[in-house]
């Protein structure tokens, strides 16, 4: 079985917003730039990255080339990188510089070693209800995640989550499939059109403790 990428919500990326623990997302990827921050500690070229800690910086890049956006300098007629927030690490200077040694290897935005996963294209809220204890937990999850991956998120709330059978509307859920594949519909768009609070209508997933499960 191929290793699946890990998906992250924007709020998870946003939690990593310090120089010592700095994540960004761009073009659907999530990258941990903490090693880059450590490697170039004290360099003024880190400032634009630091200012964008925990944020999505897709606007920095051309989605077709996957490279930083370029433009033609009206003064020199040379093609340059477009960095309105200021030049950053691995971006060459505008002209010849004696202190610029170039980049050895790939620039950080092309270096797969920084990638930790993918940014979810669509997050959704669910309610996980433990029928044994009546405890309810709201979870924000990625629509791309399987139920097994959602279970991993829920483990912090219930360390025995593996001992339960997960159901929705009386149907046992296929833990290797996504919510939508299990016919747990995402009604966010419809609720928004109706002016209803989607948080109040999050779909419930019922957990039945296996020793207490009655098949019907």
Structural account:
There is one protein chain. The protein is of the alpha+beta class. Helices cover 14% and strands 25% of the residues. It has a five-stranded mixed sheet with strand order 1-7-4-3-2. Strand 10 and strand 11 (171-172) form a beta hairpin. The model has no long low-confidence stretch (mean pLDDT 91).
Total strand count, please?
12
* Percent helix range: 10-25%
Average of the residue pLDDT scores = 91
Rg for CA atoms: 23 Å
Give the overall shape: elongated
SSE pattern: EHEEEHHEEEEEHEEHE
Question: What topology, given as strand order, has the largest sheet?
Answer: 1-7-4-3-2
Q: N- to C-terminal separation?
A: 34 Å
The SS-based structural class is alpha+beta
Binned strand content:
15-25%
Low-confidence stretches are: none
- Helix count equals 5
Main sheet specs: 5 strands, mixed
Quick overview of this protein structure:
The chain is of the alpha+beta class and about 220 residues long. The protein has helices at about 10-15, 35-40, 45-50, 145-155, 190-195; strands at about 5-10, 15-20, 20-25, 30, 70, 80, 115-120, 125-130, 135-140, 165-170, 170, 205-210. The strands form 3 sheets. It has a 5-stranded mixed beta sheet. The chain has a 5-stranded mixed beta sheet with strand order 9-8-12-10-11, covered by helices on one side. A two-stranded antiparallel ribbon has the order 5-6.
